[in-house]
Amino acid sequence: MSAKAPSSRVAAASQQRTSLIPETLEELKSTGGPSLQVQTPAQQRREERRRRQRSLDNIGVPSFSRFLQDAGVDKLERGVAEILQLNIGLYCNQACSHCHVESSPLRTEMMDRATAERCLQLAQEAQPHGLAMLDITGGAPELNSEFRYLVEQAAAMGLQTIDRCNLTVLLEPGQEDLPDFLARHQVRVVASLPCYSTTNVDEQRGSGVFQRSITGLQLLNAVGYGQPGSGLHLDLVYNPNGAFLAPPQDALQDAYKAELESAYGIVFNSLLAMNNMPIKRFADYLLRKGELQEYMQTLVQGFNVESTSSLMCRNTISVGWNGRIYDCDFNQQLDLGLRHLQGSQDAHQGSTVFDIGSLMELQQAPIAVDSHCFGCTAGSGSGCQGATS
Ligand code: SF4
Ligand code: SF4
Hints:
By secondary structure, the chain is an alpha/beta fold. The chain has one domain (6-377): TIM Barrel, CATH 3.20.20. It is 38% helix and 9% strand. It has helices at residues 6-15, 21-31, 41-59, 64-70, 113-126, 147-157, 178-184, 198-205, 209-222, 249-264, 280-289, 292-301, 329-333, 374-377, and strands spanning 83-87, 133-137, 160-165, 188-192, 234-238, 270-273, 316-319, 325-326. Helix 7 (178-184) links the parallel strand 3 and strand 4. The chain is globular, with a radius of gyration of 20 Å. The structure holds iron/sulfur cluster (2 copies). One iron/sulfur cluster is lined by residues 92, 94-96, 99, 101, 103, 138-140, 166, 205, 389. This is Fe-S oxidoreductase.
């Protein structure tokens, strides 16, 4: 297939600009199970704990902490907070089968202005101590009312910003200027594209998502993203379409680059190959297919001690839409709150951005690890570079 000229691609993209949300809702209706229902946080916590415990009990593995110790790592130590990751809401125009945050158009949770302002204040105060990046995720973060405010303020403060973009959001009505907005603020785009084949992407992310994602990438390329010398960084994220580990990143990146450029004229900077985390909707998916235990076993057997030096929890502080603070986006989805307050014994009563005086005071807080952490340490150890949308 030959690549179209950039201008005709952008014109074609404009013609496709209809919302994906009606199709997503229709698919939810036809395939909806318990995992697609909105639960209260307490229900989610109970269900998640039961599921994780069951998978571990059944395969009889030692704890993650024990694995670390046996591998010569006493415990995970937190370093300087270099990245503040904000999950600003669970609303999304998609409802992917592997979504570890269970986003969909039915979710209504969103960060408010007061919480966004407090996060920016904490980030600004932490800049002289090493904080350099604001990493914004969701849901589809661009559909949250605070997204553009956060990007503009972060740029004014001199912070690098990441947008964890699902690509199809670029075609949502009202987002016509999104590529220009991102480029103007030098936002680094990290975008999900779990395969370069239509079938695999649509199976995991919903019908029609692949073609819309391709168009979204072309729109980003058209404003300079991924183009040599533009300074506009575009990374893609691969995650497996099933219960297996991500393959080595470099060979996969070469294949993505060759295929996307020859078929669609798309260029990008790097490919990040991530494992799927055995939590939330992906855990449900595995449970339904009878593959949860096998997948946990694969993760445990794939434990790679070298990965422990670059885990997200070592240099990132994660904040949820409601201001709660976590070690990482995965702990956030399990509601394993970061405990910095003296004497706090309950992991589910962690602190919020309004409880702390600075991000620096979190440095001594222990990192909460559990069975899902095997998802970060399996294989090439690339599974923990952050949430993707
Ligand atoms: S899930 Fe990954 S990033 Fe989060 S605490 Fe566990 S090892 Fe660290
Ligand atoms: S994986 Fe990303 S795009 Fe898919 S439903 Fe979840 S947040 Fe939305």
